[in-house]
Design a protein that fits this description.
By secondary structure, this protein is mainly alpha-helical. It folds into 3 domains: 6-219, Hypothetical protein af1432 (Orthogonal Bundle); 247-382, no CATH class; 388-482, no CATH class. The chain contains 24 helices and 2 strands. The mean pLDDT is 90.
Length: 496
Amino acid sequence: MTAADPRTARVVPEALDEFQQAERHPEYRVDVERIRFSPYFSRLSSVTQVISPTGAGLAVHNRLTHSVKVAAVARAIAVQLEAAQDDSGRLVRELGGCHPVVVQAAASAHDLGHPPFGHLGEQTLDRVAREQFGLVDGFEGNAQTFRIMTRLDEHDKPGIGLNLTAAVRAAVLKYPWLRGEGGGRRGGSRKFSAYAIDLDAMHDALAAYPRIDPGQQTVECSVMDIADDIAYSMHDLDDFYRTGLLDQTIIAAEFHAWKRDLADLRRADEAELAAGQRTPGRSLELLWRRLASRDPWIADADAFAQAVQKVAREVIDGLLAVPFDGSLAAERGLASFTSEWIRHLQRSIVVHAEPELRSGHVSLDRQAWHEVAVLKFLHERFILDRPDLAVYQRGQASLLERLVMGFAAWLEDPDDARRAPRRLVDFVELATEDSLRLREEHPELAGERDGPELRRRAAGRGIIDYVAGLSDTQAISLDALLSGRTERLWDAGQGL
């Protein structure tokens, strides 16, 4: 890398100190450390991955441990690609490279924008942002990550976020478009990586990669995205095996019934399958229908059947057949199982010169792609669909909505608005500044907003930014304070 390389450019140029200059990759190593020392990174230790440690009563992955493991998986893949001397290695270099430290930084940062209570919190804040404040682009965890890195979090200069290199800023843009612009791309229009007020920051980061087509991930971003999928599928399995929540008998019945009744299942229409999906075999067939419909470019019936067979043999009839008892032997067995699967998936990487619309320049090969889909199915079907979890999550959704509306009422109180949390006031001011700039520079995105309406929506964005930056514990404590359900004062709201 040279000083003129656009991938190393920061929003505001800065000199590195003598210790940073001694590093082999000083620019990118600085980015890793700024992310790791960020309070947004630290808070991930108290942000739900799938089930919160408090709710489970057991040690399960949180967003911080997940991010650390994604970084490890992603770095290993990047080292593999960077060292490749074949056509795939040449193509990677032509597309802008795959620097292991860039990938490590992006993987560390990729979940910074996740709000309290995981994906449930994301859905709740999106709904409230659109319905209560009229924010067209609502809330999205990936867009929030980019906003934190480029605007909300600060290192030593105001207004420019952490001032990271263009390479790392681009590498977190998993869905490099605004809300509604995704079309048939990865995640469709539901996912996006930047709010309209952060559009110029997104374009600035992507400008460092002229070989990457619009709407496409950089190579480093694709590697981070794959590593996220691998870690998500394996570490959730680890958690739910340890906690005993995966009932081997019920799961085995699903897989064995699908194989036994495959001919009849293939003849059934989708409505019939959905109506009786608790009948063993039907949910697995619905998974196949969904894959074939959304991703016909890679979905293959034989590859899916082989993936089902592999997961049935190694996970259901292998790992789950022996309940986890906490012994050292059980720990060794689980570690060996997880490591072997991760190595297998890391080796199943392919590089594409012209990727399909719903793929990246780097992806899993056809067989591994199906295997990850089936692994994810285990927790989606047998954990996320549990009624007891649904009850718990509905309570969390109500809590977040109370917080947002409580802060909105506070800021509208002429007698007490001056005592609102300083960070909240700062975020409202930043959002107002950004909204005014958007109206000036991109009026087609700002819409027809007069002064009062613009400021009302900007206040909504600031409140959402504030609540999304809380940990699970902080959200619970603040809700208790705002609703008068606690007598604890000074320790409940520290640092807010």
